[in-house]
Amino acid sequence: MDVRTILVVEDEPILREIVKDYFLNEGYEVLEAVDGEQALQLIQDRKVDLIILDIMLPRLDGWSVCRRIRKTSDVPIIMLTARVDEDDTLLGFELGADDYVTKPYSPPVLLARAKRLLDSRSRQSQSPGTSDSLIRYGIRIHFPSRTVESDGVSINLTHTEFEILSSLMQNQGIVMTREQMITKIWGYEYAGDDRTINTHIRNLRIKLGDKAKLITTIVRTGYRFGASV
Ligand code: CA
Question: Which DSSP letter does residue 61 get?
Fold first, then answer.
């Protein structure tokens, strides 16, 4: 299998070093950036499979970096937040981050989160037995390339938005609870709250335009794609 490349964006040398050594030991290639501008440059120049992005950075903070990356790329992003602040977390998700880890974090936890994001990608791009594409109501999902089209027009989704839309479409007509969605996307040990999913759904609806109405909110439960069965 290809060696995966992780970009660590962190201005504090000791923290950067710890993450770097840990991922190197686990067989990843690691790129380092000490500020936001260097991160954006590296993403342009190199193939990066996942980004670990600190929020507090000199020159260009993590929020701005995340927003800029999302204009051109759906690479998985894990944000590092300095404290348990739900507003920080939600802002990260609004800007297109896929996951977050609170400082101080343990490298094994960070690795587990990174692996999950990377694995769900490769699973979808090579899972045998499932059809490559799913088309419902004019929305076409192509799993190997992780691309989505609505009436032939391509839509750029983040990693997490893609996961949510594909789960909903694969379960067309059936209500998915927020817990089911969280479990499928982040796994059981996820510590966020329900508003996380709501935030991603809101972003997804904006991108779906007039097809947004295909996603129905089921009050106090979750979401359903398409008419109920
Ligand atoms: Ca920092």
Answer: -
3 state SS of 96: coil
pLDDT digits (tens, 9 = 90+) for 38-95: 999 999 999 999 999 999 999 899 999 999 998 888 899 999 987 666 677 777 788 8
Q: What would the pLDDT profile of 156-179 be if each residue is shown by its tens digit? A: 999 889 999 999 999 999 999 988
Instruction: Map residue 23 onto helix, strand or coil.
Output: helix
| Residue 106 CB neighbours (<10 A) | 11
Distance in Å, CA 189 to ligand 1 centroid? 25
Q: How far is the CA of 4 from the centre of ligand 1 (A)?
A: 24
Query: Rounded to the nearest whole angstrom, what is the distance from the C-alpha of residue 94 to the centroid of ligand 1?
Result: 21
What's the gap in Å between 77 CA and the centre of ligand 1?
16
Structure tokens at 188: 């059981």
| DSSP states of 134-145 | EEETTEEEETTT
Q: How far is the CA of 15 from the centre of ligand 1 (A)?
A: 9
Helices (H), 95-145: 107-126
State the virtual CA torsion across 74, 78, 80, 81 in degrees, nearest 10.
80
pTM equals 0.68
Running DSSP on this structure, what letter comes out for residue 193?
-
